[in-house]
Amino acid sequence: MIKKETWEALHKRMQKLGMEEDTLLERFILGSGSGGQKINKTHSCVHLKHLPSRLEVRCQKTRSRSENRYHARSRLCDKLEEQILEKKSKKQQEIEKIRRQKRKRSKRSKEKMLKDKHKRSETKQMRSKPTQ
Question: pLDDT under 50 in the chain at which residues?
Answer without folding.
Answer: none
